[in-house]
Amino acid sequence: LGTSLRSSLDKLQGKRRLEEGDVEEIVKEIQRSLLSADVDVSLVMELSDSIKARALDEEPPGGTTARDHVLKIVYEEMVELVGDSTDLPLENQTILLAGLQGSGKTTSAAKIAWWFSKKGLRPAVIQTDTFRPGAYDQAKQMCERAEVDFYGNPDADDPVEIARTGLEETEDADVHIVDTAGRHALEDDLIAEIEEIDDVVDPDRSLLVLDAAIGQGAKEQARQFEESIGIEGVMITKLDGTAKGGGALTAVNETDSSIAFLGTGETVQDIERFEPSGFISRLLGMGDLKQLSERVERAMQEATEEDDDWDPEDMLQGEFTLKDMKKQMDAMNRMGPLDQVMDMIPGMGGGMMDQLPDDAMDVTQDRMRRFERIMDSMTDKELENPRVVGQSRVRRIARGSGTDEETVQQLLEQHSMMEQTIDQFQGMGEGDMQRMMKK
Ligand code: GDP
Ligand code: MG
Predict the structure, then answer these.
(1) Are residues 107 and 254 in the same domain?
(2) Residue of 30, 237, 347, 414 with fewest CB within 10 Å of its CB?
């Protein structure tokens, strides 16, 4: 799925304007990915509408290609959808875990404790599950592995009493994580029990623990727990499986909360702090979108900052010399593989690229290096006015640069093609030009 989204985006390469059809296609790909990741239909529709509206209404900043523009919008809207991670100050606090049986609460309690211990705090886990046989042993073992304090009582049968005693017994700890019992489904006694524990524990935040495979069942659970104890964050477990956890977004939406942690395996270290960009990439099944959009921004910035003496507008005022061409090639060289950066260069990515003959910019790194050696072998006068370069000069330059006459000719031809294109651009209005050349 991710590859088809990427190929829809790649189709925009070199395009300056987004057309409705382009946007439709991209939005369709995103919808497909998100729906198969269990994101709620209405959330997907909301997202689609925002992306469409922005992509078609907003004017891309000068020098931005259609692809960069839509990429940025998709990323921003996805961040809006998944939200920021739950605020978790590194200080004394009590965290209550809620969720159905098997969602991963007990495992997550030990993982969260381990996470806080790595941050230099002293956590303790309090196990209040008297419902599930073996709950005490399981929690105790995991806390031993996490090397964190633990309190539980296998002989007691009142979870509220265990919670009260547990908090007293672990008062030396900074962070208290209270694990609770679950049920197979939402039942009144489960809700009543967790409400009582909530009263006694008075947590700073309650986290809802959800299996990544939860799907649409997340909605009712989230609503119930939100109503009874209030939910401040979500932990999505079992993300090491095939489920992408999109259902949890429904819970986030329903509780007006955010995602705190991700569980990615069965051991206590398999925990990640939620971070939007990684999760977005997972949902879309696409490489790091954040990195991609940051790279776009960086490349644009470098392209405008890299040479104080060289103003692309000067190039458009007068002659396009070989010196200008060399500056352009240097600039491109600094930015990485050509085919990837072409689209990101202000002025080059936009309309100008479209107008160049196909092979005009077909400059491989290797060919570019040879071009540079050739230009190093040319006199200032030749660089300023390539027209003076006749057959005998071509021979001299080829010899001097250790290349051949054919390559020198190619360079001159390429320059002349670019020059013609730029001539056409010079006929355009001042405003168009500035939009094209400046970020
Ligand atoms: P609880 O009933 O909510 O306390 O859930 P448990 O912590 O007992 O977890 C139920 C099962 O899910 C156990 O077999 C755990 O090992 C497993 N589990 C929990 N979190 C993860 C996870 O992030 N990845 C995987 N693969 N398994 C997990
Ligand atoms: Mg448990």
Answers:
(1) yes
(2) 414
Q: Is 101 annotated as a binding residue?
A: yes
Q: Is the CB of 111 under 6 A from ligand 1?
A: no
From the centroid of its chain, how far is CA 305? 26
Instruction: Confirm whether 380 is domain-assigned.
Output: yes
Domain region containing 99: 93-274
pLDDT digits (tens, 9 = 90+) for 358-391: 444 445 567 777 888 899 889 888 998 888 899 9
Pocket test for ligand 1, best of 107, 108, 179, 240 (most atoms within 8 A of CB): 107
- Which pTM value belongs to this model? 0.69
For 189-208, the pLDDT digits (tens) are 889 999 999 999 999 999 99
The CATH number assigned to the domain holding 33 equals: 1.20.120.140
Q: What is the mean pLDDT of residues 160-177?
A: 97
Please indicate whether residue 127, judged by its CB atom, sits closer than 6 Å to ligand 1: no
Instruction: Tell me, using a 6 A CB cutoff, whether residue 104 lines ligand 1.
Output: yes
Q: Are residues 355 and 429 in the same domain?
A: yes
Same domain, 40 and 142: no
Q: Residue 320: which H helix or E strand, with range?
A: none
Taking the CA of 98 as reference, the closest ligand is: 1
Q: Is 344 exposed, middle or buried (0-12, 13-18, 19+ CB in 10 A)?
A: buried
- Is 303:297 a contact under the CB 8 Å cutoff? no
Whether 58 maps to a domain, the answer reads: yes
Question: What mean pLDDT is predicted for residues 417-434?
Answer: 61
Is 298 within the bounds of a domain?
no
Nearest ligand (C-alpha, residue 131): 2
Looking at the fold, whether 243 and 100 belong to one and the same domain comes out as yes
Whether residue 268 sits in one domain with residue 143? yes
Token pair for residue 157?
Answer: 């049968």
3-state SS class at 5 = helix
Q: What is the pLDDT of residues 70-80, one digit of tens each?
A: 888 898 899 99
User: Per DSSP, what are the bridge partners of residue 126?
Assistant: 151, 178
- Distance (angstroms) between ligand 2 centre and the Cα of 180 equals 7
Say if 254 falls within a structural domain: yes
